[in-house]
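Chapter review: from sequence to fold.
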Amino acid sequence: MASTLDVEAKYDLITRRLQEVLGGDSIKAILAEGRPPKAYWGTAPTGRPHIGYFVALTKIADFLRAGVEVKILLADVHAFLDNLKAPLELVAHRTKYYKFLLRTVFTSLGIPTSKLIFVQGSDYQLTREYNLDNYRLCATVTEHDAKKAGAEVVKQVESPLISGLLYPGLQALDEQYLGVDFQFGGVDQRKIFTFAELYLPRLGYAKRAHLMNPMVPGLMGAVKRKIKKAFCEEGNITENGLLAFIKTTDDAPEGTVFTIRREGKFGGPPSHYKDYQELEEDFSAKKVHPSDLKTAVNKAIDSLLAPIRKAFAESPEWQEIEKLAYPDPNAKTEPKKKKVYHPPPPGKGKNAQVTKASAESSEPPLPISENTQPGAAGEL
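The C-alpha cell string follows.
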C-alpha cells in the first residue's frame, strides 16, 4: 500500500492543468494499491503533426513522471475511417513518421520513456474478437447516440458515411483491448468518453476514468504564420490562444524563465517570468503588449523544435519515411514516352516469313485470252 502523501502527490501530478476529470477516484484507488495506473492517448495519423501536439505531450510527460504506463495508440484504422482523409498506403507510412516524431519529442524534453509503449491500431482492431465486440456494440448502440458521440470529433458533412458512426464505438473498445485504466484526450472528446462510460459496461467491461485537456485555439498548422494571426487582444486573458498554449505547456525545468523582450519605439527593459501566473497578471494589466508576447512565443517554440529538427536532419531513415508519408503534390513526374511505330523495310520483320509462305502456297490467277471480249467468258 502506498502512503497517502505519495498517492496525493502522484494524483496531483497526473491531474494538474486538466480541464476535467471523470472517475478520478478510481485512479486514486489504483495508486493506493501501489500499482502504476495504465493510460492511453490516441492519435490518427492523417495530416502532419502540428505545434498543438505539445499540449497533449507535455501532459503525457506528467503521466510518465508519475509512474503511469502510457500507451500511445497510432490509430491507423481510425485514420482511414475518418472521412477518407488519407488512403491506407499513406496511413502506413504516416504511422511510422508519427512514431519517429513522438519519441523524439519526449527525448528532447528529457522525459523518461521506459513506460512509454507505441501500439498500432490495426495490430488488434482487425482480429476476430475485436470485430465481434464491434458487432455486439452495433447491435446495442442507437444511431442517435453514435452520431451525438462523434459530433465534436468526426467531420460533419451533408451526406455522412457509416464509418463516422463506427468511430466512437471503436474508440470505446480500445480502452478494453489496450487494457488501460483511463483514457486521455482533449475536452472535445468528452462525448466519446461519456459514450464509452455508458456502453462498455453493457458489454460486460469495466468503466474507465477519463482525463481531459483544455483546447488551445488558433495554433494549428505553420507555426509563425499561425502565431502572427492568432487572436491576442491586449489585456484579454480569457480568449487568448497564446496564453493558453504557454499555460498548458508550462513544463520547463525549475529555474527556467520566460523572457519578454520589448521592441520598437515603445520598448523597454526585458521582463523575466518564473511562472505563468506572473505573466498572465502582467498581460491582464497591459504591461505586456500582444506583439511582444507573439515574438517571445515564437522564440520559445523555436527552442522547443530545435532538437527535433536536429534529430530529423541526422536521420536518413526518418527523412525517407517523410517523403513516403507526405509526397510532394507538385512534384513533376517523368512523362511516359509514346511508342512510335516504325514499319520494317520490305521483306523484313516478324510477318515477312508468313507473307512469303502465303504467297508461295496460293494458286496463280486465271489467264485471260487476249481475244476475250467484254461480257464474254474467257478461255481456259
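Two observations follow directly from the output. The chain is about 45% helix and 10% strand. Strands lie at 20-22, 38-43, 69-74, 116-120, 182-186, 209-213, 258-260, 271-273.
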